[in-house]
Amino acid sequence: MKRLDQLTFIRFLAVLLVLIYHGGAGYYIAPINVFPISVLLRSAPAAVSYLYVLSGFVMSLVYYKPNERFDVAGFWKARFIRIYPLYIISFLLVAWYYIDFIARIKAPKILVNIFVLQAWFPRYAQSFNYPSWSMTVEFFFYAVFPFFIIWAYRQTTRKLIRVSLVLWIASQIIHYFLWTFHVPALEFFVVYFPPFHLNSFVLGVVGGIWFLREGQNQELKSILPSMVFSGSVLLVSTLLILGALYPQFPNDLQPMAGLFSPIFVIVIVSLALDTSRFSLILKHPGLVALGETAYAMYILQAPVFCFYERALLTSSLQNPQSIIDTTYLPLIILIGVMVHFYVDLPLRRWLKNILRRVSIPLLLLDLVAVAVSIYTSFHFRFSLNRDLIEFKSAAYAMFWCAFIIRAVIPVFFNGTNPSTLHLSIAQMLRPVLVSATVGTLLIGILMLGFVAAGWLNGFPRSILFYDWAIWLSLSLLARFVFRMTGIYRLNEATT
């Protein structure tokens, strides 16, 4: 399937609406921020639904291959590589911004952000990098997509359309009821819970399947797709304005639960079929590049704003707020472009090469071992509860240091390579032992540095030995179990 580059720039426009909604472009929209244009400028909730529909549509274009076996593991790995590097960078930047408080933040709040689960827990949905809740939704889509697309191979297009519309109708009824009777008490649940957004993604997937099966073979007058596209955009705009005029409609008639998603499918399909000059303009390399950098802009908007605002407000410049208002938008666009091409793309290539020699199950077990080891070490070291409470911040700080270091160091020393499971016992043990020892040294240096900086009142160094011994034992146990059960065959482990 050839690329439909005319769809790419629209992604940038949708993210731009999100930036405007979050207050990042006030100076630039001020001249046109009057009714009814002002309503359209704050239509980010509808833009988010559009992005979900577009995600499903593009997924179909890339992965709908009914004559081939669907590689589920390969799909998940590809999507992880595409999304996670910048996601975790943005999280670490926000964590750095709050470094003075990080040791006092409860572990579950940080863990759900690291594992992209925050939107499943309404109280954590807006924690840390608040726009990243939508990545939880995207990861949910990726979990569902392989099974839906495999099922779709055997279904007629008409049945798929019926199923997607039934799902959409059911979602809208449930969401309308919850929004009407349970907001604000359950607002974070109603707005951010991933299943509420599934209807948008499924409509996009089905729209993509229809396009591949039937749409791209349609013989249409060149002006017809342009007319349908224009009419659909006008319809959405009219509904948004009506929602603003009649406040009895929940959330100004633009909830992110996909109210306009069927129209968005028509918008995307008509643009995909369009061959007019308008599409040729949208295919301009510069516009396509902006569309490709939209994810970097979206995921980095909060940390960039936080650091930029702090730097200017603590500077000696006159009227720093005015500088923020006039420079933040071009700055985040520039950063998005630079990060996409010089950070994100190289990171994806690097991570793709790394994951070829990493056992994800072993890596996850190593991370579980971190939690068990820290918990056990501190409880073993302190028999009295009051002593344990005194060093609670140290336990949290050590956990986060260990969580990152124990994930990176074994990969660096080849300790998570499944091929080592087929070597001699000594060769299998060596990278794990080296990883445990080097990791403990780095954790110790960081913890003592935190004490010296005054971030922690103290740190019992004997904990390092307990943690080293427990983590090493658990990691070796996992590898012996994998070795004995033969989970990785030799030819799989060496590819």
List the helices and strands and how they pair.
Layout: H1 8-21, H2 26-29, H3 37-41, H4 44-63, H5 72-97, H6 107-114, H7 133-152, H8 157-182, H9 187-192, H10 198-213, H11 223-245, H12 261-273, H13 277-282, H14 285-292, H15 294-313, H16 320-355, H17 360-381, H18 385-390, H19 392-412, H20 425-452, H21 462-485, H22 490-493
Helix pairs in contact: 1-4, 1-14, 1-15, 4-7, 4-10, 4-12, 5-7, 5-15, 5-16, 7-10, 8-10, 10-12, 11-12, 15-16, 17-19, 17-21, 19-20, 20-21
Structure description:
- By secondary structure, the protein is mostly helical.
- It has two domains: 5-301, no CATH class; 358-493, no CATH class.
- Helix content is 72%, strand content 0%.
- It contains 22 helices and no strands.
- It has helices spanning 8-21, 26-29, 37-41, 44-63, 72-97, 107-114, 133-152, 157-182, 187-192, 198-213, 223-245, 261-273, 277-282, 285-292, 294-313, 320-355, 360-381, 385-390, 392-412, 425-452, 462-485, 490-493.
- Helix 15 packs across helix 16 (320-355) and helix 19 (392-412) packs antiparallel against helix 20 (425-452).
- The radius of gyration is 25 Å and the shape is globular.
- The model has no long low-confidence stretch (mean pLDDT 89).
